[in-house]
Design brief:
This protein is an alpha/beta fold and 342 residues long. It folds into two domains: 14-261, Aldolase class I (TIM Barrel), CATH 3.20.20; 270-337. The protein has helices at 36-44, 57-61, 65-69, 89-100, 116-119, 131-142, 164-173, 196-209, 224-234, 251-261, 270-288, 290-296, 298-304, 312-318, 324-337; strands at residues 14-16, 19-21, 25-27, 49-50, 55-56, 81-85, 106-110, 149-154, 178-182, 215-218, 238-241. It is globular, with a radius of gyration of 20 Å. The model has no long low-confidence stretch (mean pLDDT 95).
Amino acid sequence: MTGQMQPKPLYHPVDIGSVHIDGNLFLAPLAGYTDRAFRSVCIDKGASFTYTEMVSAEGLARDSVNTEKLMVRAENEQQLAIQIFMPEASVVARSIGKLLEYSPTVIDINCGCPVPKVVKTGAGSALLRFPDKIHDIVHLIKHSCDIPVSVKIRLGWDSSSLNYRETTDAALAAGVDMITMHARTKAMGYSGTADWSALADLKHYVYKNNPKVPIFGSGDLFSAQAAKEMLEQTGVDGVMFARGAMGNPFIFSDTYNLLTKGEETVYHTTRERVTTLLKQLHLMGNDIGERLACREMRKHATAYLKGIHHASKAKQALVQANTYEQYETICARLVEETPQEL
């Protein structure tokens, strides 16, 4: 099937195989950040769909309790994509049964993580060098269940091997239902500038023969305006926020308001930020206990306060806080010290 892409509103529903998603603003999988507490907060703030942290298929095959915890839904998570990583299809064959016990809405295959400890196992971005392995992984899952399958890829291994069309062809041949591309190479990691022109190329390339397979873009999405520009410039079906959502779950509602109403959010008040911060802390504590949650929340807390000019003392205090009470006291003091915000 060929033809021209039909224009559509920038904010719109998305169908991933048999699954219908009400919007196209997704939270990306991000190890160490997208636990169910943060996903819950992002849903409250308007995320259309959320992804788990990376889940080791090998861990699932070995019945790792810590691995399985990553797949538990938040109370407000009606739909959830579980992202798995592995070096080859044989690992999936040993883990698919355990994975299906958690009823994922979508199964996502990580073909893009550039972190050395993942790549050296043959997983993540290492798969970009072996499109046939991507094909085999997608094929095995598609023939093991009726759950839609998506893949997350990068431009290629490095600037001399930009093979995203080839990896896309491999996934499509196996029946993949959605493709997300982070518009950087593995070698770039998270440095440099994402190549959005490649996203436009990928969307047009896939649309020619597979118009029903949605293409999502990722890379350099740190504001609602950036999301709007990506959608306008590339024609992708939706955006996937990663680092741009850290400490800023408001980016989902900000983007929704910009795309649907033309409203730009200038800032979020200190009170709103710390209220959301504390909610995430308590949700996390419900899962892992107060003391550990207070430690894990430190990296999120400093991100929540980014850009507040008088927050340096609060940041320093939060990275040493060990109890809910300490967090609440520090946050309350920060609000009191904040000049009146309209």
